[in-house]
Amino acid sequence: MNKDERIKILRDLIKINSVNGNEAKVTDYLVSVLKEKKIKVQADYFDEDSANLVAEIGAGNGPVLCFEGHQDTVAIGDAKQWKYNPFGAEVIGDNLYGRGAADMKSGLAAAVIAMIELNEERGKISGKIKFVATAGEEFGAKGAYRLVESDVLDDVSAMVVGEPTAGEIIHAHSGSLNYRIKSFGKSVHSSTPERGINAIIGLNYFINAEQKIFENSPVDPILGEFKHSITTINGGSQVNIIPDYAELYGNIRPTMTLGNQKVKEMLAKTIKELNTEHKLKLELEIVHDFFPMSTPVESGFVSQVARAAREHFGPKAQLGIINGATDASVYVQKYPTLPVVVLGPDTWEVAHQTDEATSITSYMNTIATYKKIAKLFFE
Predict the structure, then answer these.
(1) Are residues 242 and 186 in contact, defined by beta-carbon separation less than 8 angstroms?
(2) Which of 36, 78, 139, 158 is 20 to 30 Å apart from 55, CA to CA?
(3) Structural domains in the chain?
(4) At what angle do helices 105-121 and 3-15 cross, to 10 degrees?
(5) Residue 84 contacts by C-beta under 8 Å, 6 or more apart in sequence?
(6) Burial of 209 from C-beta contacts in 10 A (0-12 / 13-18 / 19+)
(7) Tens place of pLDDT for every residue, the chain, 379 residues?
(8) Nearest alpha carbon to residue 39 among 116, 114, 111, 125
């Protein structure tokens, strides 16, 4: 493909509104592009407007390299704050603007184009290249969970997740565990609070305890400090009524050292102790449970990816970690030894922001890097 054809595919993807769902439209478009290029592709439609997509090239019993990405985006927020149309895919100089330009339709398009061009070049592949596009990564990763319930990824030997990294090679990232604490009380008029049970007070006990649950958490040698936060709280409906219900949400970033199961046990133990000691009625609900991922820097796959990225991104292609989770958080639950790296175009800092953008230079470098990774992988 020439440069204009490559840019057109990315612009077409950005023009499709796949905010918090509606991935089926993206899938339809990618299916048409891949079929036109004579690439085997299969779509899996589910729910009302969601879909996963799997395409592959190559043959034989050799290793399988997988390029993976998600088709959904976060919401645009206040459209009036955007200088550029969030679905206009405008090109200004070296930048291409729009929701999903960074996270992660540029990575998605780069993987599609790399696969098409590798197939057209007819180079020898002693195995298969698989392209996977998922639904719902931004909230709940429902597409990734649907994939691991099948056998689609059972033959995958290594994976590149195309999230925006500006060419940095992310070999490890934290998990993400979202939880809700429900507090139940008894509603009465605020003139006689002693007759009721204030559900907000129950949450207050938990908030104070939460600061101590993880205070001596071990530092992960790769992912660093353990991170935890209470992020939202809701309770009460009227100023002169004692609330009989309140709730809060928290987010925790599990590491390889302090993993998801241990975190859940610590939370449950705290809730049980608070209920017993203070006669509360608190309940714990785990909302999302994404695992950390870590591929050793000395692994052959990381070395191959680093070599490819440095050829095209230069000094930007450093090894690194992030505290964000990806679809890989789901995959490593079923495939704990699967080598995974996260590598894509510009850049975490602009993802989810007003006037989100990717640079065309970074997008082109990503396509070239993906092709080089594949060639090294099958040498």
Answers:
(1) yes
(2) 139
(3) 3-174+292-377 (3.40.630.10), 176-290 (3.30.70.360)
(4) 140
(5) 90, 92, 97, 98, 355
(6) middle
(7) 999 999 999 999 999 999 988 899 999 999 999 999 999 999 999 998 999 999 999 987 899 999 999 999 999 999 999 999 999 999 999 999 999 999 999 999 999 999 999 999 977 788 999 999 999 999 889 999 999 999 999 999 999 999 999 999 999 999 999 999 999 999 999 999 999 999 999 999 999 999 999 999 999 999 999 999 999 999 999 999 999 999 999 999 999 999 999 999 999 999 999 999 999 999 999 999 999 999 999 999 999 999 999 999 999 999 999 988 999 999 999 999 999 999 999 988 888 999 999 999 999 999 999 999 999 999 8
(8) 116
The Cα angle at residue 299 between residues 295 and 304, in degrees rounded to 5:
105
- Provide the CB-side half-sphere exposure for 166 (13 A, CA): 13
Question: What does the block give as tokens for 243?
Answer: 């609330």
pTM, rounded to two decimals: 0.92
